[in-house]
Amino acid sequence: MQSSNHRLRDMDQHHPLLSAGADVETGSLAAGVMVGSPHTGHTAGNRTMWFIQDSCGMVCAGITWFLVLYANFVVNFVMLLPSKNFWYSMLNGATFNSLAVLALASHVRTMMTDPGAVPKGNATKEYMESLQLKPGEVIYKCPKCCSIKPERAHHCSICKRCIRKMDHHCPWVNNCVGEKNQRFFVLFTMYISLISAHALGLSGMHFFTCIKVQWNECSDFSPGVSVLLLIFLCLEAFLFLTFTAVMFGTQIHSICNDETEIERLKNEKPTWERRMRWDGMRAVFGGSPSLLWCNPFTGLRLRRLLLLTYGRRDGSEFSV
Question: Which one of 48, 252, 302, 315 has the largest count of C-beta atoms within 10 Å of its C-beta?
Answer without folding.
Answer: 48
